[in-house]
Write a structure and sequence with these properties.
Strand content of chain A: under 5%
Structural class of chain A: mainly alpha
Distance between the termini of chain C: 65 Å
CATH class of the largest domain in chain C: Alpha Beta
Number of helices of chain C: 10
Number of strands of chain A: 2
Number of strands of chain C: 17
Oligomer: heterotrimer
Helix content of chain A: 55-70%
Strand content of chain C: 15-25%
Order of helices and strands of chain C: HEHEHEHEEHEHEHEHEEHEEHEEEEE
Chains: A mainly alpha (309), B mainly alpha (372), C alpha/beta (371)
Radius of gyration of chain A: 20 Å
Number of helices of chain A: 13
Distance between the termini of chain A: 58 Å
Radius of gyration of chain C: 23 Å
Order of helices and strands of chain A: HHHHEHEHHHHHHHH
Chain lengths: 309, 372, 371
């Protein structure tokens, strides 16, 4: 492939856009999954462990079977399995779901590292990319517009989930259970069943996010392949006001913010790179401070969230 | 003000009267038997896991025993690990009594460490006890203010404290790295960028007769103070009331905002003190090793210890024992270093599960037909 | 049931007896402990050490214990203490830089009969007698890799992704650059610091940003070069490796690389210990350093894209190293702000202690050491 001519300062917005495309998939899947879980009234803080298990399973299965798509499926199933554990535990009486989430995070990470160590060396077949940039002769643009099919899937999912909440019976059940479980129970809806399915599906999606990490970008399995996407997902969901479409926007924002630090250095800004690398977190905190208000309860928040009902 | 002994916020109206406090041995037994049972089940599950991984479960159990509690030497290892975790756990435990879920312990510890270094490394002429006191105060102040900010964001802007405290962790670590590699960098620290060190003369020493540094004493005292403060003072009563029923507390006229900010500050101060101990007793200077994960361990300890001062103390020692056995499991049983994470996760998951078993066993239910 | 319980107890008893007997026999063996700061299979730094340890374990008079993922806190003090007390280790190899001060220095005072060999630390007079340090001048291999990279590059822009601006890393960057500019004076090396030893996402972003800026050969100094090498291969540019041989990850673009050869170092130490030498007696040197000549490091075999000219130049440089006549840091050398850091007429040999305090980037490097 032709080497690129340097593009100087244009490199920064290009990197942000490319970073948004490259790096947003894990955020997208985890946040959409957590959105689903939280709509049903439960928080799942264990998604970081699920993300790692997903990344590891995808890589391992892709390596052993030669098919990356099989790896993606395995990641989802691994996620669903952890989700089932979380759902069962978190719905027992007197059990705090935040504590369960953190314990699952530790357990999931430990399991992922334990099973995944033998797979750090080998190279697993990655997912093929969809090339959208061929209209440009610049290699930078071509590379930036290489879209992963998982991202496409994620985008479709975020809209589909929105439509699902608004227009289907099951979407209504989930929202009902999330807003007022006692009323939902009185209506004959099985709160436990709805929540279990929501948590498991949310976890399945988080597993897919993990597959994106190990099979697309950064495209490798190591213990540190995640940069906290699982924990940040909870922030993203609040940021997005529990609207799956806004989860997409938030994920793109975060993916882009991840690229700011290195891009600035490449363009010649040599200082403060630790602080630039913390850009996604500072950004989120700043936006939350500006947009939240103590008076109005957060619009869109499921009523039962955080109350332990 | 009615005494705390007769108000039970959890008893549902219309329940049968409970036997007097002195006769409630069944409930007390339950609080011990269920966690103990959970530990046994967790060990059993872990043994099965190790068996599947190719190590003998009995050998694993022996390793854990040897490494965590089997000798005074081993127990000291456990205590050394428990000390910072105990203090960090209070950073979650205290606000949790108010109903706030704060997970910013790691950030508070880091800021506490930075505060300690600012005083300890630059005020080198201070006499020993003055220096230690100043460093402790600086650490507590820095950590306290950090979590106070989290509380303030919640009270004045309604920002969810779980998220804000989590983000503040990342930001604190970024600030630590920036300062330690830049403005506070000690050029002679070569390949491990660090701040200027606290002079040896002002280091926090060990408890005489042991290898454990004084941070453990800080931890134990802090847990005891927390216990007394929350369970046995009127301030603690107000805190618990806010945590139990926010609307009722507001109606009763309690200054919810001020109390929340104060409790957040106290929690952050505890974690900040852990940071001070890490600097003054262990590392000697600030560098990236300060963010060692004690904060995150503390979150879980706070939950499993029921946010109770004594509970936190005991669970921190338990976790210290689990972590102390990690090395032995690697060397003796040839298990991966990730095994201790699995162990940790299992123990906490099972103990959390066991929370749901309270009140389910007939044996532990108080007899209320007055034939005693 | 009762019988299975009995069998289990008997088995356990047997294990103990065997263990005790083994311990008695093991008293004749030398017990060595290896401590790593990360997992053993990171395809990089820790793995290189672990492979060295595996080499030593084959010797029948050595029992080696390893512990991985030990952070640079009290945890490593405990690990060392446990290895000494519980595994009867008399020789320890804690391999991460941050273990040295205060942890090793503290333990060395507590256990004067145990020898602590630290990777990378700077021993000097006044520090405990039973502490030694070893390190390899892998920057010699980087110099050779720089030659190959500069000649293979078409844009003459090389990229270097590094973790932190510490002396060992700066030395690698500088040697790479000096090697590159010795054959292509107009070559530049652009440096991006990620901030930490293992940040796959940042490393991938840095790789992509550098490539977008026109770089066509990438190299790195991070704990695990895997992500950077695979990203380079995906985007069709060339790369040189580090720590270990990553050519299988980039069959087309891998030019060469700078690798450790720790087995040689550990074998040397094992020999000395076996023949009764020790630090305390002064028969083992406290500061051990070596480069290509001593076999502490090596240059990877050349990849398919390396031209004959490049091979010739690289081999010529290697020959000079082997003959001991190569001086990388031969003045005058300016840093990239224009200041003279090594005056004309002075040549710093690899063993010069000043080089271990390096805090500048040489001319030709785009980047800064500040944070």
């Amino acid at each position: 492939m032709a080497t690129s001519e340097s593009i100087g300062w244009l490199g920064v917005p290009l990197a942000i856009m490319a970073g948004a495309i490259r790096g947003s998939s894990p955020f997208l899947f985890v946040s959409v999954g957590e959105c689903l879980t939280e709509k049903s009234g439960k928080i799942n803080l264990g998604l970081e462990g699920t993300l790692l298990m997903g990344a590891m399973s995808a890589y391992a299965v892709s390596y052993k079977s030669g098919s990356p798509w099989l790896g993606v499926l395995a990641a989802g199933l691994a996620g669903a399995g952890l989700g089932a554990m979380h759902a069962w535990l978190a719905q027992l009486p007197r059990v705090n779901d935040i504590a369960v989430g953190i314990a699952m995070f530790i357990f999931g990470s430990g399991l992922a590292f334990f099973l995944g160590d033998p797979f750090i060396q080998p190279m697993a077949p990655p997912l093929p990319a969809i090339q959208l940039g061929n209209w440009s002769s610049l290699p930078q643009i071509q590379s930036a517009l290489k879209i992963s099919p998982l991202l496409v899937l994620g985008i479709i999912l975020s809209f589909a989930l929105y439509w699902f909440f608004q227009n289907t019976r099951w979407g209504l059940f989930i929202r009902a259970v999330g807003d007022n479980p006692a009323a939902a129970r009185a209506q004959g809806i099985s709160v436990v069943k709805v929540r279990t399915l929501s948590i498991m599906t949310g976890s399945f999606l988080a597993g897919l996010g993990g597959a994106s990490l190990s099979l697309v970008y950064p495209g490798s399995w190591t213990r540190l392949v995640s940069s906290g996407q699982g924990l940040m997902a909870v922030a993203l969901v609040i940021f997005a006001r529990w609207d799956p479409r806004r989860c997409l926007l938030a994920s793109l924002l975060f993916g882009g913010a991840q690229a700011v630090g290195p891009a600035l250095q490449a363009a010649g800004v040599k200082s403060y790179y630790y602080l630039f690398n913390a850009a996604p977190y500072i950004l989120t905190l700043g936006i939350m401070i500006f947009t939240c208000s103590p008076k109005r309860s957060l619009a869109g928040a499921p009523g039962a969230l955080g109350t332990g009902e | 003000m009615t005494s705390t002994a007769t108000i039970t916020l959890t008893a549902p109206p219309g329940a049968a009267p409970e036997p007097p406090a002195g006769r409630r041995w069944r409930t007390s037994l339950e609080s011990v038997a269920i966690p103990a049972g959970a530990m046994l089940v967790a060990l059993l599950l872990f043994g099965i896991f190790c068996g599947l991984a190719g190590a003998s479960p009995f050998s694993v159990y022996y390793s854990i025993y040897r490494a965590a509690f089997g000798s005074w030497y081993a127990f000291q290892n456990t205590l050394i690990r428990a000390a910072p975790i105990m203090l960090c756990a209070l950073c979650t435990a205290l606000p949790m009594r108010l109903g706030l879920v704060v997970i910013g312990n790691e950030g508070a510890l880091v800021m506490g460490g930075l505060g300690t270094v600012l005083v300890g490394a630059y005020w080198v002429s201070a006499p020993h006890y003055v220096a230690l006191t100043a460093m402790a105060l600086a650490g507590m102040l820095a950590g306290g203010l950090w979590i106070l900010a989290v509380g303030a964001m919640k009270i004045y802007r309604g920002v969810n404290e779980v998220i804000s405290s989590l983000l503040m962790n990342y930001i604190a670590i970024a600030i630590l790295n920036h300062l330690v590699n830049g403005p506070m960098h000690d050029p002679s620290s070569l390949n491990k960028p660090s701040s200027f060190p606290v002079p040896d003369a002002n280091a926090l020493g060990n408890i005489p007769g042991s290898r454990v540094h004084f941070g453990l004493i800080y931890g134990i005292v802090a847990c005891l103070i927390t216990w007394v403060l929350i369970e046995h003072t009127s301030f603690g009563f107000k805190v618990r009331m806010i945590g139990g029923n926010l609307r009722a507390a507001r109606i009763a006229g309690l200054p919810v905002g001020k109390i929340s900010l104060l409790v957040c500050f106290l929690g952050g101060a505890a974690a900040g003190l852990a940071g001070m101990a890490e600097i003054a007793a262990v590392q000697g200077c600030a560098n990236e090793s300060l963010a060692a994960g004690y904060g995150y361990a503390g979150i879980l300890v706070a939950f499993v210890g029921r946010q109770h001062g004594l509970g936190v103390l005991l669970v921190a020692i338990l976790l210290g024992g689990i972590l102390a056995s990690g090395g032995m499991l690697q060397r003796q049983n040839h298990l991966s270093d990730a095994t201790v994470l699995v162990f940790q996760g299992l123990v906490f998951l099972v103990i959390l599960y066991s929370e749901s078993l309270y009140g389910r066993f007939k044996f532990f239910q108080e007899r209320t037909h007055g034939h005693q | 049931m009762k019988i299975t319980k009995l069998i289990h107890s008997a088995a356990l008893l047997a294990v103990f007896i065997a263990g005790a007997a083994g311990a008695a026999r093991a008293a004749d063996k030398v017990s060595m402990g290896f401590i790593y700061v990360g997992p053993k299979d990171d395809y990089g730094y820790n793995q290189a050490h672990s492979e060295g340890c595996a080499g030593v374990q084959k010797l029948d008079w050595v029992t080696a214990v390893e512990e991985a993922s030990v952070p640079e806190t009290t945890a490593v003090e405990e690990a060392m203490r446990d290895m000494i007390e519980q595994n009867k280790a008399t020789v320890l190899f804690p391999t991460s830089f941050g273990y040295f001060n205060p942890h090793i220095l503290k333990l060395a005072k507590d256990y004067p009969k145990v020898q602590f060999f630290h990777c990378g630390g700077m021993w000097h007079d006044g520090l405990p007698d039973n502490v030694g340090s070893y390190f390899g001048y892998i920057d010699e291999a980087e110099y050779v890799a720089g030659i190959v990279a500069a000649e293979s590059s078409k844009s003459k822009k090389l990229g270097f992704i590094a973790a932190k601006p510490i002396p060992q890393v700066l030395r690698n960057i500088n040697s790479y650059t000096l090697g590159a500019r010795s054959v292509v004076p107009a070559a530049t090396v652009q440096v991006i610091f990620t901030g930490d030893w293992s940040l796959p996402v940042k490393e991938a972003e840095a790789a992509n940003s550098l490539i977008d800026q026109g770089v066509d050969v990438l190299t790195c100094h991070v704990d695990s070069p895997k992500v950077i090498v695979t990203t380079a291969e995906k985007r069709g540019i060339m790369c040189t490796g580090y720590h270990a041989n990553q050519s299988v990850l980039a069959p087309k673009g891998y030019l060469t690389g700078a690798e450790w050869n720790w087995s040689k170092v550990y074998a040397d130490y094992a020999d000395w210990v076996h023949s009764g030498k020790s630090l305390m007696a002064g028969t083992i040197p406290h500061l051990i350093r070596g480069g290509l000549k001593e076999g502490f490091c090596k240059v990877s075999p050349y990849g398919p894209l390396v031209s004959d000219q490049a091979k010739a130049d690289a081999d010529a440089a290697k020959a000079k190293f082997m003959a001991g006549t190569m001086v990388i840091y031969q003045g005058p050398i300016k840093d990239n702000t224009g200041k003279v850091v090594i005056p004309g007429g002075t040549g710093l040999k690899q063993t010069d202690i000043d080089l271990e305090k390096m805090n500048y980037l040489v001319e030709g490097v785009l980047g800064s050491t500040g944070s």
